[in-house]
Amino acid sequence: MTPVDYLQFVLAPQVVNGLALGVAVVLVALGLTIIFGMLDVINMSHGEFYAIGAYAALALGAAGIGFWFLLVLVPILMIPLGMAVERLLIRPVFDTRDRHVTTLLVTFGLGLIVEDVLKIVFGANTQRPPTPIPGATEILGIILPNYRIFLILVGAAIVLGVAFVVYKTRLGAMVRAAAFDRNMAASLGVPVSLVYAGTFAFGVSLAGLAGVLLAPIYSVFPTMGRDFILLAFTVVIVGGMGSIWGAVVAGLLLTQVQALASLVISPVWTDPIVFGTMVAFLVFRPQGLFGRLGHA
Amino acid sequence: MHDRLTQSMRASHLLALLFVLAALGLAAMGAATGDTFYLRLGTEALIFAGLALSVDLLLGYSGALSLGQALYFGIGAYVSALTLMKLPSFWLAMAAAFLATLIASIIGGLIANRVRGVYFALITFGLAQVMAKVVYNTRELGASDGMIGIPVIEIGFGPFSVSAGSPVGFFLIVLAVIMGLYALTAYLLDTPFGRVLTALKANEKRVPFLGYSVWRARMAAYVLAGVIAGLSGALYPMLRGFVSPELMFFATSGNAVISVVLGGVGTLIGAIYGSVLLVILKSIIGSWTEHHLIVIGLLFMLCVMFLPRGLVGVVRPAIETWLSRRRPAPVAAADPADLPAIIAETARTSR
């Protein structure tokens, strides 16, 4: 095989597939990192919200609602759910002495429940919705599935949109202010309680959106969140907890490492490499690649 | 001023005594009826209680949440299984598991203790996950199937010997090992070392000012917890005759955390009660539905939110009052070694 062939038929498709997975991971990690950066809450049930989004897309899609409408509808439906979880579960333990541990435990319990509920409602079998954009396109002699190209573009748009809202708008400034100093923000007229609930709901809604987008590629099953959340946590840690750009860079970097490493070694060993990277980062640079939202 | 720590540990010991009596009663009943199933289930609950005990030592005393304690449990189980297949000796298997987890937890501790709080939780989670994946993919360790065919051993004590195949005999041995680990932990927590741990949880910033090394205390607690988990894990292949990578998975670590929270964080005996309670709940709920996670998850969440001290935390104050009425607690001396305990005490009452 000539080097050009290798590039065209092995390396490039692998890089693009890794990019699609990277965008997927970034979408899930984005909500996780925003919730941590703003509220100081480790949401262990984030993967389950991602699963809820995917199942909602599956069920509503089967009921005849089109994919394009679902992209808007599911995230909106997730907002009241996120608000309710924040009010009923996070708020009561928000001011305990060890907030990290307590909220981690509460959301861990919630994750267990959601997983089992999904199993009861939808069954334990793996399902897969039809691909909304079939076919493939040839770019520079590289054949790429259309849906993956779409996913990469939409993912980039979502990340840019979120970053714009958080860093450039008045709403984002209020959210960052509330994260930086709750009391000062409150005395300047920021509705802190609403901002907290809204931020959590926003993170949950992003997870739901990721679920809708990824269901056609990675199929839908009750424990789908559990497998994905590990990678998302790794991305959040390596990128720096609470940093949006950190999540983007780390997400793309780690999935490329995974994709390219699997060309050289057996794919089953790429997971230890990715987790090993997380451990190495925690040891040598616990704050991650970038600083933290609202704190830098 | 009463030393509340000694007082509450005394209440825990009373609960431990009740536990042993109940277990002995169960063993006698099981032996009389010739039961195998419930005794085996009880033995398994006890083995996982050892894992929960190690989680409670970290979470309840040094204040560090480990989400990957199953790592050491799994290492103990695998090393014990490998040793038993070479040479079926109980003591050799326990010694090998002890050494292996000692080394593993020193390495793990060097990594994990560089960070704290939520990062500690995630790093322990990551470490366990990496190791579980490695075991899962190693053909020599049986890969995803695990290892089967571990021989049933005779456990000798001088002239006497008990077979691990005998439900009652092995139940009693596991009971002795786990309660021995409980007693050892309780004893160590009552030494100045234990008080430094308590002080760490109460206020980590003040501990260095009193001349104690935070790192050394955290490291000691981590290694101790690792070894306790490893020794409990070493018993597993003797009971079931196989080991599988599931022993290292997050579900195992998660169950230990659930046991500790249900039973009561920072009570030691609560971890053991919680573990037994979890097994009972699972088999009761499991008898009419396979969806037991909903009920356990709900109970767990309610416990975290409304009962942060767990079941033992509810019962124990009453026992403490009863004990102190019977026998007044000693007054804490103003010895420098007691200072951390006094700080912990003030931190607790002023909260």
UniProtKB/TrEMBL annotation, chain A:
GO MF entries: transmembrane transporter activity
GO cellular component terms, A-Z: plasma membrane
Gene Ontology biological process: amino acid transport
Main location: membrane
Assigned keywords, A-Z: Amino-acid transport, Cell membrane, Membrane, Transmembrane, Transmembrane helix, Transport
Membrane spanning stretches: 20-42, 54-81, 101-122, 149-167, 194-221, 228-254, 260-284
Keyword Cell cycle: no
Keyword Transmembrane attributed: yes
Annotated membrane topology: Multi-pass membrane protein
Protein name as annotated: Amino acid/amide ABC transporter membrane protein 1 (HAAT family)
Source species taxonomy: Bacteria, Pseudomonadati, Pseudomonadota, Alphaproteobacteria, Hyphomicrobiales
From TrEMBL, chain B:
Origin: domain of life: Bacteria
InterPro entries listed in its UniProt record: ABC_transp_permease, LivM-like
The UniProt record lists the keyword Lipid biosynthesis: no
Membrane topology: Multi-pass membrane protein
Gene Ontology annotations for the cellular component aspect, listed alphabetically: plasma membrane
Keywords for the protein's UniProt record, in alphabetical order: Cell membrane, Membrane, Transmembrane, Transmembrane helix
Protein name: Amino acid/amide ABC transporter membrane protein 2 (HAAT family)
Lineage: Bacteria, Pseudomonadati, Pseudomonadota, Alphaproteobacteria, Hyphomicrobiales
A Pfam family annotated for this UniProt entry: BPD_transp_2
